[in-house]
Amino acid sequence: MLRFRTSGTADIMVHAAKLLFINHLRTIAPPSSSSANLRPPSTSSSTRSMSTSFDPHLHHLFQQKHSLRSKVRTALKNMDSILKSQQDDAIQRVVLEAPWFKNSSTICAYISCDALREVDTSRIVSNILSNNETEDQGHVQMKKRLYLPRVEDKNSNMKMLKVSSYDDLVLSSMNILEPTLVDCTGNPREDVMQATDPVDLFIIPGLAFDKFGGRLGRSGGYYDMFLKNYQELIKKKNWKQPLLVALSYSVQIIENERIPTTPYDVPVDALVSASGFIPISSVAFKYCH
């Protein structure tokens, strides 16, 4: 089951925690021109007034996160290209054949970025965009609505906008494909936060994962912030919880340990690796029967 925090001060606390981490990194490492983190963390003015307080526990936690990010980025960089391609194919095949994917009518996914070494989603996205209730092994596939992320700023704000073809996407300033703000007719593209139906499935990226639901992002906080806001919406609408599935290469999964997390980090329901579907929450386990 997804767990969220919905406190009115959560956004400020998340930004404050990030700023503390940024200040710490400036003391231990020089600026880097690496493309490993294309979405920089928030440095909004709302956090500056809170940066004077020092929390030793939070400081240690962010040191652990920083160390783990470095290790996983190195492992991804050193990953054999043939193995990476094989795992990309296997992971996407698991998703496309899964009942939780086939039975989802509204999906939030992502366009994979090579520079970030994310699990490839090209076949998944193409399948959704080309799906018009076609026959699949004698069964009619449900027509799906697809929403993809668009980063709004450096303060962890992200939208999920509806797309119907690859023509709806443009390269962002960070060289990542994102939906345009308006469609081909000049009308604003539908935002999932204003949609009339709930999301059934989130397919999300990440840098590292454990088998307890822990997810380590790239320090931007975009998905955690978005999912927290979406949780507030579904509570208001009395909608069902979506299934949150993360895609992961084998080197990104931390075995027999927990990723260090804060109360503002959103856990996942399940992982998909080349070895298959890895359920974590009680909701995800229902798909194993």
From TrEMBL:
Keyword list, A-Z: ATP-binding, Magnesium, Metal-binding, Nucleotide-binding
Q: What class of enzyme is it?
A: ligase
Entry annotated with the keyword Nucleotide-binding: yes
Here the segments flagged for biased composition (Low complexity) are 42-52
User: Which reactions are catalysed by this chain?
Assistant: (6S)-5-formyl-5,6,7,8-tetrahydrofolate + ATP = (6R)-5,10-methenyltetrahydrofolate + ADP + phosphate
Positions of the UniProt region annotated as Disordered: 32-52
Q: Where is the signal peptide?
A: none
Record's compositionally biased regions (Polar residues): 32-41
* Domain of life, per lineage: Eukaryota
Q: What is its EC number?
A: 6.3.3.2
Statement: the UniProt record of this protein carries the keyword Nucleotide-binding: yes
Family per similarity comment:
Belongs to the 5-formyltetrahydrofolate cyclo-ligase family.
The UniProt entry, under NCBIfam families, shows:
MTHFS_bact
Q: What is this protein called?
A: 5-formyltetrahydrofolate cyclo-ligase
